[in-house]
Amino acid sequence: MLLVIDIGNSTSDFGVFENENLITRFKIPTPRNKTADEIAGSINKGIPSHFSAVIISSVVPESNESFQKLSEKVFGLKPVFVDYTFDFNLKIKYNPPSELGIDRLIVAFAAVEKYGKPCIVCDFGTATTIDAVNKQGEYLGGAIAPGMSIFADALFQKTTKLPKVEIRKPETVIGNSTVGSMQSGIYFGYIGLTDGIIQRMIEELREKPKIIATGGLAGIIAESSELIEVVDETLMLEGLRLIYEKKKH
What we know:
CATH superfamily of the largest domain: ATPase, nucleotide binding domain
CATH topology of the largest domain: Nucleotidyltransferase, domain 5
Radius of gyration: 19 Å
Strand content: 15-25%
């Protein structure tokens, strides 16, 4: 079995694969200042203890040492940390490649492997990234925007009278309460942001790409987007598995 770990800004996502099948998945808040023993105490007690390998993607460098020790102490394995030097079978046009968030590159790789090229992949997490790969297999880069939860938090934190609201799709654009108005602005404003960026990317590509969404808020955003075609909630974990299989061979 293969253990894949995606260390994100807000949460760390664990996936257990048996061959090509994802048999277990769970998340924990990303432990930025915790030891390996503390992380071990917070992970799912039902996770298997025997793996053939551990592969990790991380955008939180300060957590890497603890996760490395976790893998070595708990699973007896030296983990593989993915970086931009891996063979993604993509020509990286980002400048410089070393500054490219590895999560962006992995989901772009996974999107091409699963859905073909050209494609645009949207990852809706703490931050939103929308990236493009053309039909020549060139990773072109993309756009980074605050995630929807950051929008909501900013309204609450930067104003005196506006409350913290749940992120949800309101029934109408015209809100008849403060909460309803905020939810409308956050949700439908974000749909406009998403579709606006995607549409401009399509125009720049001058070709018809497949539009894929992933990340924690992908489902709720895709529900109203006019351009997103596929929601793949496990794209990042699948990408790590595919990278491991490619590296193994």
